[in-house]
């Protein structure tokens, strides 16, 4: 069973593309005539010129909207696509799930004629700056330590990719791990957590004590006093990075 056959059932509801992050991805793909989306999930951020989506989970493929690019069930390490098939390949918040990073990146570069665009995160920055994992869910961030991909290593595998910071808006509509940094009560919602692999893969039993502490701190106002400086910010950098590699 593919990982997101179990974890991805709510993605179409909780992981809606954020327009500001989408604009950054579109800019990175500017000028590309055709695109393949690897680890495509339900199709978030796919440009209209996407010609193929590659996704191992049938649950995720089933959530792709009508009219989306055709999808094939396959993994990044073995793309069923010829060499130099398209101008660009995109892979968004997926490399940490791959079993062989070097093989997967090699496949992206094999298939792309001109550009590879990858969205990921810097684990060191994430751990240091994101209050949820630092103060309440250290067990979850420890789980991510084992699967997070060092940005420098990924950039090197991509042939010296440019690395761009992707700030997270305070009202981000894409419910990934740090999307609710200014809306802490959202992390108490099981449906929200189901769409965040950081929480879902760590397990509810493991994170329950931290969530109880968060609920108590919200009820008492302690969280708002401790993080008052966040409430006036429109966006923050908690480590999300866009890598743009040229072939």
**Main beta sheet strand tally, sense and closure:** 7 strands, mixed
Which series of helices and strands comes N to C? HHHEEHEEHEHHHHEEHHHHEE
Show unreliable segments.
Answer: 1-6
Q: Indicate the overall shape.
A: globular
How many domain modules?
1
CATH top-level class: Alpha Beta
E-strand count: 9
CATH topology: Rossmann fold
Looking at CATH, the homologous superfamily is Vaccinia Virus protein VP39
Q: Tell me roughly what share of residues is in helical segments.
A: 25-40%
CA radius of gyration is 18 Å
User: What structural class do the secondary elements suggest?
Assistant: alpha/beta
> What is the rounded distance between the termini?
33 Å
Helix tally equals 13
- Share of residues in strands: 15-25%
Q: Quick check: average pLDDT?
A: 93
Please identify, by name, the CATH architecture.
3-Layer(aba) Sandwich
Task: Order the strands across the largest sheet as they lie in space.
Answer: 3-2-1-4-5-9-6
How would you describe the overall organization of this protein?
There is one protein chain. The chain is of the alpha/beta class. It has a single domain, classed as Rossmann fold (3-Layer(aba) Sandwich), CATH 3.40.50. It is 39% helix and 17% strand. The chain is built from 13 helices and 9 strands. The protein has helices at 3-7, 11-14, 19-28, 58-62, 101-111, 123-129, 131-136, 138-145, 151-157, 190-194, 197-202, 204-220, 222-226; strands at 35-38, 50-54, 71-72, 86-92, 112-121, 162-165, 168-169, 235-236, 240-246. Strands 3-2-1-4-5-9-6 form a 7-stranded mixed beta sheet, with helices on both faces. Residues 1-6 have low confidence and may be disordered.
């Amino acid at each position: 069973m593919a990982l997101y056959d179990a974890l991805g059932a709510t993605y179409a509801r909780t992981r809606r593309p954020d327009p500001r992050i989408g604009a950054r991805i579109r800019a990175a793909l500017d000028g590309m005539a055709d695109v393949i989306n690897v680890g495509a999930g339900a199709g978030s951020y796919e440009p209209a010129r996407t010609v193929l989506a590659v996704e191992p989970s049938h649950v995720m493929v089933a959530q792709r909207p009508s009219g989306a690019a055709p999808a094939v069930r396959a993994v990044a390490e073995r793309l069923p696509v010829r060499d130099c098939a398209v101008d660009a390949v995109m892979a968004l918040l997926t490399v940490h799930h791959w079993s062989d990073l070097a093989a997967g990146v090699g496949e992206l570069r094999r298939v792309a004629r001109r550009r590879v665009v990858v969205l990921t995160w810097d684990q060191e920055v994430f751990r240091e700056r994101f209050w949820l994992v630092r103060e309440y869910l250290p067990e979850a961030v420890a789980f991510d330590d084992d699967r997070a991909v060092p940005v420098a290593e990924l950039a090197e595998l991509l042939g010296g990719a440019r690395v761009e910071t992707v700030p997270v808006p305070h009202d981000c509509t894409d419910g990934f791990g740090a999307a609710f940094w200014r809306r802490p009560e959202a992390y108490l919602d099981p449906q929200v957590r189901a769409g965040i692999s950081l929480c879902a893969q760590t397990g509810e039993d493991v994170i329950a004590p931290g969530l109880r502490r968060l609920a108590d701190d919200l009820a008492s106002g302690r969280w708002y006093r401790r993080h008052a400086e966040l409430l006036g910010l429109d966006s923050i950098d908690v480590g999300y990075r866009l890598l743009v590699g040229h072939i």
